[in-house]
């Protein structure tokens, strides 16, 4: 079974991650992120091949990171879906605490539905 990628949507229906891709990125960066998400969709084995390639990493329980350089795509898995929660341009090895807090909050919303 293939994994479908979905973007987290707030109650009002908008998706900050999806809007970020559409409105703020140049075509080459859009293609890079879309290609990374397609790799996730093509995984029928629960993403184990992506994790073996170091292309993605588990950051903590139910929070994962895709790394199409220089971008970082944060996602969670629930109900057979890969839920894209947030995207940043990562300039350092550390994820800013305010960003990680935001990702945790979104993950909790998704997993508590």
Task: Please give a structural write-up.
With 113 residues, the protein is α+β, with helices and mostly antiparallel strands. It has a single domain (4-111), classed as 2-Layer Sandwich (YaeB-like fold), CATH 3.30.2310. Helix content is 39%, strand content 27%. It contains four helices and five strands. The relative contact order is 0.18.
* Order of secondary-structure elements: EHHHEEEEH
The total strand number stands at: 5
As for the CATH topology, it is YaeB-like fold
Count of helical stretches: 4
User: Architecture, CATH level 2?
Assistant: 2-Layer Sandwich
Q: Average pLDDT across residues?
A: 89
Number of domain modules: 1
Q: What structural class should be given to the helix and strand makeup? A: alpha+beta
Strand order of the largest sheet: 1-5-4-3-2
In short:
This protein is of the alpha+beta class and 113 residues long. It has 4 helices and 5 strands; from the N terminus they run E-H-H-H-E-E-E-E-H.
